Amino acid sequence: MAPHDRSKDHRPPDRLGEQEGVIREAQRALFLARTARGTLDEEGMLSLDEDTLKNAAGLLMSIECARLRAGLAHWNAYARRVVGHSAKLSLSEMVHELRAVADGLSAVLLTAVPEEEA
Description:
Number of helices: 4
Strand order of the largest sheet: 1-2
Radius of gyration: 21 Å
Strand content: 5-15%
Shape: elongated
Structural class: mainly alpha
Largest sheet: 2 strands, antiparallel
Number of domains: 1
């Protein structure tokens, strides 16, 4: 792909530099949201892994997005495993598993950064 010819751009060069910085930050936030990883402890609290934290580098909302994404990914995988075995489970076992998913999602949401802090 050929490099972008700025001589044909109608915006002043200083605006281009501003936009490039914003675009880079947006790309960084999107990358973080797609690649977030973490682990859940016994209380259902999520800890982001070292690479996710390093990639976040001070982006509070990106960290929160990454934390929520990692929690959602965990409970999505858990629910899919349960559904895969649903034919073998009794009704009470299904209710138990559904409650576990609901409790897990609640724990992820309850530890979210309140809007006034974001």
